[in-house]
Amino acid sequence: HCMRLIGAAQRCLELACRRVTTRTTFGRSLSQHQSVREDIARSFSDIEMMRLLVLKTCHRMDEVGAKGAMDMIAASKTSVPLMAQTVIDRCMQMHGAGGLTADYPMAEAFNYARWCRQADGPDQVHQMALGKQVIARYG
The whole model's pTM is what? Predict the structure, then answer.
């Protein structure tokens, strides 16, 4: 699910970038507001960090197999869906009420990200396993 979630967050960011260049508030484009630019920048950075985490996880799995990469898998399974929800939520904010409509892709992407957090196992279970592995490695 991780790469699909990254793609969904990326798509929502692209839609938000288009929206902020065409929507005006207080007599100027949304894209000219500092807080909007900060949200765009933060979202871009979050997406790229998770993309690198997943790619590193895949690389580790290729090197040592899934059992040897359980720490990276757990980190990806908890971090990517949470990032996707956060980024998609920011993008929905930039669309206003339109971002919530069922016929727009953001609402579906947000619900999918939430579903993934449950379907792949609760965050707490992955965090517990990850914490145990990190302590065993460095403790």
Answer: 0.91
